Amino acid sequence: MIRAVALTCLLLSVDGFAMEHAENPDLISADGVGRIRLGRPVPKDLLPADAQASYVAGYHADAQPHEGFRLETPPVTVFLDRGPFLRAARSEAVAAPKPAFGVQAMRAAKAGAKVRMILVESAVLKTASGVGVGSDLKALESAYGDLRLFAVPPSFGGDECTAQSASIPNVFFYFKTCEAAREGGTVVRVAIFRP
Fold first, then answer.
1. pLDDT at 23
2. Which of 68, 70, 132, 177 could cross-link to 79 by cystine, CB 3.0-4.6 Å?
3. Is residue 105 part of a domain?
């Protein structure tokens, strides 16, 4: 009986948590931004109308291929778990995506390709604690007491330091460098992914 009550309370709180996030398209959380969730397809009504203009593909960090779309609402870049560029990059180094890749990737997105990573470069989007792009290290430490800084290889350029907290897993706050972060520099990018 006690287990059933505890499970019901847990399910209600998780459902309420998901509803709270779904209602706020500007909220960065441990599993996504607004209605965009890691491991789930991008909601079709959020996909861009112009596949070619919003399509992105290339490599980040240590030559990890990525492809996806820049969205307007919320203003994020989503990387998918499958698509033509990723398929081609498995067998060869692809210098540039082919012109048809954007349309093919959009077909994959509409067919259910899942979100693998979300990049936030807009200061509009914040966590429930009110931090995001443009926040400084003091604001992050105030929001997340267990925050830790790590020097990392550049991922997308100008992001050689990440701040992470167990309080908000899968969310990585990137600074230009750790020295810049300690000297008052601000977050240049937030990435949400499962390492």
1. 63
2. 68
3. yes
